What we know:
mainly alpha; 69% helix
Amino acid sequence: MAGHSSAVTSHTGNNPFLRFVAAISTLAGWCSAAMIVAAVAITCQMIFIRFVLNGSTIWQTEAVIYLMIAATLIGLPYVQRLRGHVNVDLFPLTLSRRPRFVLAILTLSLSILIVGVMLFYGYEYWHFAWDRGWRSDTVWGVRLWIPYLSLPIGFALLLLQLIADFVALITGVDKPFGLENA
C-alpha cells in the first residue's frame, strides 16, 4: 500500500532562477496534462468511428501513442518538482544531517549526469530523424522528428529542474531529499 511521504514540493525561496525553473516545470506539467486529455479525446473519437460508424481509423492509434509518450517525457520536470518520482526515503531518514546532505549531493549529481547523457542521445536521435527525413511506416506517415522532439525537450526540462534542485540544496533554500526534518 502506498503511504504518504514526508517529502514536500521543492522550495524556491526568493531566488529568481529557482522561481523561473519552477514556473517552467509547472507549465510542462500543464502541457503534459493537456496531452493526456487530448489522447483520451482521440481515443473516444476512435472508438466512436470504429464501433458506432463502423469506419476505419488511420491516425488515431499512432497519435495516442505519441501523445502518451510525449506527456510522460514532458511531465518529468513537474513530477520532479513535486517530488513525485519513486522515492525510498527510509535510508535518508536514518541519516544524520551532514551524511544526508552528502547523500543528496551525490544523488543529485549522479541524476544530473545520467539525465545529461540521456539528453545528449535523445537530441542525437531526434536530429537523425530531422536530418534524414524519417517518417513512420504507417498510412499516416507522420514525420518522426515531431514526436521524437519530446525526447530532448523532456530531458532538457528535467535536467533544468534537477539543476535547480541542486542549486536549492547548495544555497540552503531546500532541504536534502525535501525532508523537512533535515
